Amino acid sequence: xxxxxxxxxxxxxxxxxxxxxxxxxxxxxxxxxxxxxxxxxxxxxxxxxxxxxxxxxxxxxxxxxxxxxxxxxxxxxxxxxxxxxxxxxxxxxxxxxxxxxxxxxxxxxxxxxxxxxxxxxxxxxxxxxxxxxxxxxxxxxxxxxxxxxxxxxxxxxxxxxxxxxxxxxxxxxxxxxxxxxxxxxxxxxxxxxxxxxxxxxxxxxxxxxxxxxxxxxxxxxxxxxxxxxxxxxxxxxxxxxxxxxxxxxxxxxxxxxxxxxxxxxxxxxxxxxxxxxxxxxxxxxxxxxxxxxxxxxxxxxxxxxxxxxxxxxxxxxxxxxxxxxxxxxxxxxxxxxxxxxxxxxxxxxxxxxxxxxxxxxxxxxxxxxxxxxxxxxxxxxxx
Length: 383
Prior knowledge:
Helix content is 56%, strand content 2%. The chain has helices at residues 5-13, 17-31, 41-44, 57-73, 78-92, 98-105, 107-125, 132-138, 145-158, 168-182, 195-211, 215-220, 223-237, 242-256, 263-286, 302-312, 318-321, and strands spanning 129-130, 354-355, 359-360, 366-367. The strands form two sheets. It has a two-stranded parallel ribbon. A hairpin with a 5-residue loop joins strand 3 (359-360) and strand 4 (366-367). The longest helix has 24 residues, at 263-286. It is elongated, with a radius of gyration of 20 Å.
């Protein structure tokens, strides 16, 4: 019930250079809007009680992965998780907001915030949205419908209904589209059979999706910095030559003012590599389909085959993370959740466009990805 983001991507590739530049500049301007700024809320958000804070970077990562379980099950966009976590981070960065202070100190409040932000994000990005009953089920009844509705109003008012925070993936898509304009062998980037372009997109997407779970990359780095760093790492994997790198650098600097060699980008590239290294074992074990079988990584030439096969050894699970290549065989990322396969059919309840679906675990019990033992080890919690 959501428009495939691959269709949007290839429509972006067909835009003219001037249109791509205009759209990129708009996103960069949004990025500088003070309403969308984040601060280091884990370090400075709790003053004297910070040492007793139950929310940490690890807790944030667990919540982000849990939200990914939910959107994967309902066949929603991973971009929805990125948007939801951006709302979470912006909200927690607010000073003098009681609910934000409580969420920084309590994992129970923190998870309620994340669940509500996911609901808001689905309403912003998806054709369908998650209804309140589904969210109550996902929380294992820890929150009632009134808790969720009340928190939603608090979040929307605190954010002043400003829900267009720029995230890394839209910036990365436009930067890659610009790259196809200046690198001759990518000139047919709008062609879905251009394997190098497809792999560049998917490797970039994978890093960005992993970065959503990382506090430093999501909160302390600009979205544009993460986008460019992800592209450069992917270009390394695909063995782009120096001439192509220089062409990309000139295009980004001259057309958008972004310095792809800045110290921030260099540091972000290293951080993204570290994020992948920390999560690579889990990523590899969960991959449902190897990169070699993904339609995004089919090759049409021996040169492309060499580049893709070399890169696939490091990113064999790229098809799991790619919304374009998921084909109904994903397993939940959270190991505490029962092993399931996504069901192809949906049934609606309540609102015409509300997603209200369950799945069955190995014992035949109907349920959706839940928060079972999500915060075990993080102090007293209803989870």
